[in-house]
UniProtKB/TrEMBL annotation:
TM spans (from-to): none
Domain Amidohydrolase-related: 5-331
Pfam families: Amidohydro_2
Record text on subunit structure and interactions: Monomer.
Methyltransferase in keyword set: no
EC number from the UniProt entry: 4.1.1.45
Name of the protein in question: 2-amino-3-carboxymuconate-6-semialdehyde decarboxylase
C-alpha cells in the first residue's frame, strides 16, 4: 500500500484555561465537556460545534488512521482558536497554549502524528518569534488563516511573515476562516458551503494578482485547504480578465494560471470529477491528501476517494496519497521509514 499523509486535520484540546477570566474580555472559545467522549465547543455562551474525543485523543486518532490506512496525520488548530481579533500579546499567549497542546497529542505517537503551529498573525514580529519557538519544539510548519481582519495575504506584514517561513523551512497551510457576508448566510451552513470556498479563492488571487509571488522566494512551501476553494473552476475567468482588462494585470506580470507551480492544494473536494479537474489545473505534483478530519464536512474515510478513483493510475495515486505531501512537508525521511 502507498505511503499516505493526511495534511489537513484539526484538533481541539480536551480542556484549557478560562480565557475570559484570564484576559477580562468576553466571547472566548472554551470546551463544555458532556461526558462519554462528547463535548460542545463554545464561543462565549453560544454553542459553536459539537465534537468528540477524536479531537483531543491521540489514541483515538491512531485507531482511525489504522482503520483508514493512513501512515501520518498532520494536525492543526481549529481556526476558531486563532484569536487574530485580540491584542497581539493575548493572541501569542493563546498560540503558546494551543501549540503546547498539539505537541502533547502528538506525543502519543510522534512518528505518525505531526503538528502545524499557530501564530499571532496580526503582529508580524510576534508571529515570526512564535514560529521560531514552535519549530524548535517539533512543529513542522504553521497554519494561518487566509486573512486578518481586512488584511489579505498580500498585506506587507503577512508577506514578511511568509518570507520568514521560507527562511526557517516552515511549511504553511492556509485555511479559510471568518467567512465573508455571514449576515446573508445565516442558515444551512452556507458560510461553510459558499463563503469558505470563496475565501480560499480570494486568498490565492490576492497573492497572484498583487504580484506577491514575484516578491516571495520559490523555496516557500504553501498549501491551500479545501482544494483551493473555487479557484480551479474559475481560473479560466481570471485568465480571461487578465488578458482583456489592464486593471486586472496592473500588478501581475504573468498569466494567472502560470502561478499554479507556486503552491499546493489539498484533495478535499469529495468528487472524482472535481478531483480530475483539480489535478489538470494544478498538475499532478501539486495536489496532496487532505481530509478535514475529524469534522462532519471532512472525508469520512480518509483517502477513500483517491484509492477508489479508477481514473488514477498507480503512480498518480501514490503521489496524491503521500509522495507530494512528503515533499511539501519535508517528510521524505519519514516516507522511507514506512516503505
Amino acid at each position: 500500500m502507498s505511503f499516505s499523509v493526511d495534511i489537513h486535520s484539526h484538533f481541539l484540546p480536551e480542556h484549557w484555561p478560562d480565557l475570559e477570566a484570564r484576559f477580562g474580555t468576553p466571547d472566548w472559545p472554551w470546551m463544555k465537556q458532556l461526558g462519554q467522549g462528547r463535548a460542545m465547543l463554545m464561543l462565549g455562551q453560544k454553542e459553536f460545534r459539537p465534537v468528540l474525543d477524536d479531537c483531543w485523543s491521540g489514541e483515538r486518532r491512531i485507531e482511525a488512521m489504522d482503520e483508514h490506512g493512513i501512515d501520518v496525520q498532520v494536525m492543526s488548530a481549529t481556526p476558531l482558536l486563532f484569536a487574530y481579533g485580540r491584542p497581539a500579546d493575548q493572541a501569542r499567549e493563546v498560540a503558546r497554549l494551543f501549540n503546547g497542546a498539539a505537541r502533547e497529542i502528538c506525543a502519543h505517537d510522534p512518528r505518525r502524528l505531526k503538528s502545524l503551529c499557530q501564530v499571532p498573525l496580526q503582529d508580524t514580529d510576534a508571529a515570526c518569534a512564535e514560529l521560531d519557538i514552535a519549530m524548535a519544539e517539533g512543529h513542522i510548519g504553521v497554519q494561518i488563516g487566509n486573512h486578518v481582519g481586512d488584511r489579505n495575504l498580500d498585506d506587507a506584514g503577512i508577506i514578511t511573515f511568509l518570507h520568514h517561513c521560507a527562511d526557517v523551512g516552515a511549511a504553511v497551510l492556509i485555511h479559510p476562516w471568518d467567512m465573508m457576508a455571514q449576515q446573508r448566510m445565516p442558515k444551512y451552513m452556507m458560510s461553510w458551503l459558499v463563503g469558505m470556498p470563496a475565501e480560499t479563492q480570494l486568498s490565492i488571487l490576492s497573492l497572484i494578482l498583487s504580484g506577491a509571488f514575484e516578491k516571495l522566494p520559490r523555496s516557500l512551501r504553501l498549501c491551500f485547504a479545501h482544494g483551493g476553494g473555487s479557484f480551479a473552476f474559475l481560473l479560466g475567468r481570471v485568465d480571461n480578465a487578465w488578458r482583456n482588462r489592464d486593471i486586472v494585470r496592473v500588478d501581475c506580470p504573468q498569466l494567472p494560471s502560470s502561478y499554479t507551480d507556486r503552491f499546493y492544494v489539498d484533495s478535499a473536494v469529495f468528487n472524482e470529477d472535481a478531483l480530475a479537474m483539480l489535478i489538470k489545473v494544478m498538475g499532478e505534483d501539486r495536489v496532496v491528501l487532505g481530509s478535514d478530519y475529524p469534522f462532519p464536512l471532512g472525508e469520512q474515510v480518509v483517502g477513500q476517494m483517491i484509492r477508489e478513483d479508477q481514473g488514477l493510475d498507480a503512480s498518480l495515486r501514490a503521489k496524491l496519497l503521500g509522495t507530494n505531501a512528503a515533499r511539501f512537508l519535508n517528510l521524505e525521511e519519514c516516507m522511507e521509514e514506512f516503505a
